[in-house]
Amino acid sequence: MSSVPGRNKRLESAISILLLTLLLLIGLGVFIRQFDVDMGRFGIDTTTEGPLSEQIKTNTQEPALDALTPDGFKKLSETETYDAGNLYEKINGKAPLYTESGFVKLFTQRLISKDDENLWMELFVFDMAAIRNAFSIYSVQKRADVHMSAFAKPQPCYRTSNGLYFIHGKFYVELIGSTESTVLDKAMAEIAVKFASQTIIDDAKITELALFPEEDFVPGSFKLYLANAFGFDAFNDIFTCRYKLGDQSITTFLSKRPDPQDARTTAESYYNFLIENDAEDKPTANKTLKDIGAKVLDFYDTTEIIFAIGPFVGGIHEAENQKAAEELAARLFDKLKKDELSF
To answer: By the 8 A CB rule, do 178 and 118 touch?
Structure first.
């Protein structure tokens, strides 16, 4: 009988060893699984071929600034790189605008004329991660009194008295000269063309730009507000452009929302925002606006109009002339209604 307790102890030891081994195997399996996650379960494609891999290659591309030096110039400094953590060191005061708009990196370099040390410029290349982010930064900072450049590429592009500004894919680029100079102007143009020809980008287009009416449009007046358009925090991805009707300058806006319900909700929210800020409803004699239930408001002696159609919110912002504003709002509605790509 004395042998039974011994057998029980051996059995308990064997069971303990088996349980410990099982726990170790489970732990090893969990550890391996952490490094072999099936991201396809979350809708993420992890294949190394196809569109995703091409997108990654494009998004990680860094511009080769040394290859952009124009004839008659040389480097005054080596390339400097800034990220979101230290961007403020280079563009103090404006850094939040960039970092809140998708900024990834800034590459900058100074160039100087070989013949005249007073002629130098600085090149700023902002990687904004996506073309919409780059366009937003480009557009909201562009002044109204600039000269649009007629390059085939890059586009869009504009000049000031001592600078050149453009986007190319996800890149927003500034060239700022030491002074007004035809020599610098020519060198900047050469850099812009080189950048567009040597920097590979995808063919992504900003389709909303084609949805605005063409008649009376002011060239180069497009803007994209990624957030807080017109001071309203729920107004994101808002495109605007200006029109000239007679002596009236009028700003139109539109935004594509995820679905028609979101468009209606956004339009109603903006209307309520205006009312809360002392806007008042105004009657309209425009049949189109009446039929679609557009909101026409007086806002500090200017006219605001807002409507929803399909997935779009559209309207007029701070127009001086109500009749002209209503005419243009009706045009915008008709354009969205007729455009098959809108829905």
So the answer is: yes
Yes or no: say if 107 and 127 are a contact pair by the CB < 8 Å rule: yes
Give domain limits for the chain.
Answer: 61-198, 207-342
The closest alpha carbon to 232, from 275, 202, 180, belongs to 275
The model's pLDDT over 147-203, given as tens digits with 9 standing for 90+, comes to 999 888 898 999 999 999 999 999 999 999 999 999 999 999 999 999 999 988 876
**Residue among 191, 141, 184 at smallest CA distance from 168:** 191
Q: How far apart are CA 263 and CA 234, in angstroms?
A: 12
CA distance 245 to 15: 89
The token pair at 76 is 């005054």
The answer to whether the beta carbons of residues 262 and 268 sit under 8 Å apart is no
Query: Which residue, among 165, 163, 166, has the nearest Cα to 184 in the 3D structure?
Result: 163
Task: Name the residue type at position 187.
Answer: A
> Which pTM was predicted?
0.79
The fold of the 207-342 domain, in CATH, is Protein Transport Mog1p; Chain A (3.40.1000)
Q: Options 3.10.620, 3.30.70, 3.40.1000, 3.30.1300; which CATH number does 61-198 get?
A: 3.40.1000
Residues 6+ apart with CB under 8 A from 293: 307
The closest of 308, 305, 222, 211 to 258, measured between CA atoms, is 308
Do the first three CATH levels of 61-198 and 207-342 match, i.e. the same topology?
Answer: yes
Order of strands, edge to edge, in the sheet holding 295-299? 223-225, 238-245, 248-256, 312-319, 302-309, 295-299, 280-281
